[in-house]
Specification:
This protein has 6 helices and 6 strands, in the order E-E-H-E-E-E-E-H-H-H-H-H. By secondary structure, the protein is of the alpha+beta class. Helix 3 runs antiparallel to helix 4. The longest helix has 18 residues. 18% of the residues are buried.
Length: 190
C-alpha cells in the first residue's frame, strides 16, 4: 500500500558517526545535506537506511558477526538507536530501531496512526510501504548519480541527469522519437 510520507524528524544516537543523541528536524521539507568530512552527512543517510531496513548497503557485515561495526565505538552503553518520524495525510508514522553491539539482531517497532507493530510484523509493514531494501538502495543510488551528473559542464549529460532525477527520461525518449519536421509541416497545413 503506497503512501506519500514526508520525514518530520530523525533522532540518531550511537550509530556510526553519531555518539550522543542528535535530532534533525526536517518538518517535511526537502533537504540538501552538505558540509566538510566528518560532520555526519553519510551517517545521517545511513541512519535512515538502517532504521527502515536493518542494514546499510555498503557495509559488508558477515553472517557470523554481531554487526557491531554499526554501533559507534565511543558509545558507552554500546547501543545504537534511530527514531524516524514520518508524516502522512492520515497521521504520524514512527519507526524505531535499536541494536546493542553484542547482539546480532536489532529491535524494531513501527507505529502507524492505526496500530503499533514489533519485530517481523513491523518489518512487514515497512516493506508494504517502502518495498525492499534493494529497491530503496537502487533508488537512492540513482538519485545520487543524477545529482553528480547535474554538476557536469556537458549540456547533454546535464539534461539527461535532470531527466533521470525527475523521472522524465522516458518522456525525453518519446519526444526525441517524434520527427519534428513532419509535425511542423502538418502544423503549417492546419
Amino acid at each position: 500500500m503506497q503512501r506519500d510520507l514526508l520525514i518530520d524528524s530523525i533522532i540518531v544516537e550511537g550509530l556510526r558517526g553519531f555518539n550522543n543523541a542528535q535530532t534533525i528536524e526536517l518538518n517535511g521539507a526537502h533537504a540538501l545535506i552538505s558540509g566538510p568530512i566528518g560532520v555526519g552527512k553519510s551517517s545521517t543517510l545511513d541512519a535512515i537506511e538502517w532504521v527502515l531496513f536493518g542494514d546499510i548497503a555498503y557495509i559488508k557485515c558477515s553472517e557470523s558477526r554481531t554487526k557491531a561495526e554499526l554501533v559507534n565505538a565511543n558509545k558507552i552503553n554500546q547501543k545504537a538507536r534511530v527514531m524516524l518520524k514520518l508524516r502522512g495525510d492520515d497521521g504520524e508514522y514512527i519507526i524505531q530501531r535499536e541494536k546493542h553491539a553484542k547482539k546480532k539482531e536489532s529491535d524494531l517497532t513501527f507505529s502507524a496512526p492505526y496500530r503499533e507493530f514489533e519485530g517481523d510484523e513491523a518489518a512487514n509493514q515497512i516493506y508494504s510501504i517502502f518495498g525492499t531494501f534493494e529497491d530503496f538502495h537502487r533508488s537512492v543510488f540513482l538519485h545520487q548519480e543524477a545529482v553528480r551528473a547535474i554538476l557536469t559542464e556537458n549540456p547533454e549529460e546535464r539534461d539527461s541527469a535532470i531527466d533521470r532525477l525527475f523521472g522524465l527520461e522516458r518522456t525525453r525518449e518519446l519526444m526525441s522519437a517524434i520527427p519534428v519536421t513532419i509535425v511542423r509541416k502538418e502544423h503549417e497545413k492546419l
